[in-house]
Amino acid sequence: MSRGLRHGRRNSGFTLVELLVCLAILGLLASVALPMSEMTVQREKERELKRNLWEIRDALDAYHRACEDRAIIVSPDQSSYPKNLVDLTRAIPDARADRQGQTLRFLRSIPRDPFADPDVPADQSWALRSFQSEADKPQAGADVYDVHSKSRATGLNGIPLNRW
């Protein structure tokens, strides 16, 4: 009787074929998930790049408006845009008569280009365009009119990041 029970009892566990099928399915799922996760990381970096570009460009425009409103005094031969990005974070005395003793700041800190080398300081992570340079051939100069990424990568939208 004990002999019949031993043969009737089924061994628990997986066969080698079942394990190989499970491993193949897991490998297939991983090969699909990896490109999706890489695309998600790329998309997040692009969102951060877009936010940082807007933040810096808004600060550059605010600095320019402050010069036009005579809150910042510049000489006639000087540009109404900052000389560098660090100027946007410095406390600049407000030159308007009703605001004596007050200061202007346009950024708390300079956002960094998320595609730049993390060892590069944030203000040096951007390519700069001066007011005098052409839009299709941006060049650095005596002032900072605009910024763009130094990255040669192409965005998910097909446009090179340095053209954003």
Structural write-up:
It is elongated, with a radius of gyration of 29 Å. It contains two helices and four strands; from the N terminus they run ααββββ. The protein has 164 residues and is mostly helical. The chain has one domain (50-164). Helix content is 37%, strand content 7%. The chain has a two-stranded antiparallel ribbon. A two-stranded antiparallel sheet has the order 3-4.
What can be said about the biggest beta sheet?
Answer: 2 strands, antiparallel
Determine the mean pLDDT. 90
Number of helices: 2
| DSSP helix fraction | 25-40%
Proportion of residues in extended strands? 5-15%
Pfam family, one: N_methyl
InterPro entries: N_methyl_site, Pilin-like
Organism: Roseateles agri
Protein name: Prepilin-type N-terminal cleavage/methylation domain-containing protein
Distinctive features:
single chain, 164 residues, mainly alpha, two-stranded antiparallel sheet, two-stranded antiparallel ribbon, 2 helices, 4 strands, 7% strand
Question: Would you kindly provide a brief summary of this structure?
Answer:
InterPro entries: N_methyl_site (IPR012902), Pilin-like (IPR045584). By secondary structure, the chain is mainly α.
